[in-house]
User: What shape does this take?
Amino acid sequence: MKTGKKKIMLIVPMLHQGGFERVCVATARLLEPYYDVCIVLFDSRDIAYDIRGLQVVDLHMGVRESLLGKALNIGKRSLAVRKLKRKMGIDIAYSFGPSANMVNVFSGRSAQVWVGIRSYMDMENARKIRLFSKRADLVVCCSKRIEEEVRERYRCSKAVTLYNPLDAAELRKQAAGTGPELPWEDREGIIVSMGREDDVKGFWHLLKAFGEMCKTVPRAKLMIVGEGDFGEYRTLAQELGVAKQVYFTGMKRNPFPYLGAAALYVLTSYHEGFPNALIEAMALGIPVISTDCLTGPREILQSGERLYGVLLPNMSPEKDMDASHISEEERRLAGEMARMFTDREYRERQAAASLERAGDFGSGRYVEQIRRLVDGADRKEVAGKGNGRKGIGD
Assistant: This one.
């Protein structure tokens, strides 16, 4: 019989910049006082997060491009993780992202298998979700919308919602660190959006709306913080005549001073899971505008009948880099952005609402929920009970 603290393994492909990678590291730190926690990585290159003091195991099994290479990688990683689970006496293995989930379910049942569905895009692979629903002991969803679909479409009673943790005090500390290097002397009127260069983020909508907005607020600036070259977006900014007002920062190990420079945060994704950056902006008292995309923003911004930010209808996923074509949805976004800068009282109300709502997503609540799941795992109580099937705000 195992004694002492429960042993928890967190499995993640890498720890380069990204939402579920950040949640993995935060989970390890938050659970350390209560359990023996280790992080298993497939590849430790380009680590963007502070892992000092954490127990980390690197499998040295990075990405392979060919289909055969990917299949072999799943097998080799699964065998390695299976050995680790047994050697370390792991009680619960919790994986983050599709590739880590595959390895987790194929690496044996010597430990409870928890798989994390971190994005609505993960739901597009029905075969994987069916596999996870069948073979995992718990399917951890980052939003209630995803949980509901897993339960209904796959008849999975083992799905629960666990919102991402927010350590507001640590976030503010990091945001107050060394000031960001910006290309402008005037640091007023900066709009920020965060995310890697990926079509799912809808950054062409943001750039076009910004170009329209500048006709009303000519001193406004736009900063996109995230990994990528953004070459085609730089070209679009030039064609829109706002290139000098747009700054692509690239990946930043500490992006929060850049976020903290914002007067407004805007999210234009047409798919998300639980957009960390949106709630992080709110915790810094920044007013926010977001698309009502699948999934996350509505659950963050709405509680009951009250909205804590501006929620716009989801925008077209059809990429349109034609600078001469500005859609009605982009014009509407431009108008909402302009209002934030021209109506001071409105902006201040929205900033206060951001701060108020961010308080509902504290890391203390996350720890309480996940400990309830962990401590109920050996009693088979997790399925359908973990967080009472209620998320924050219910």
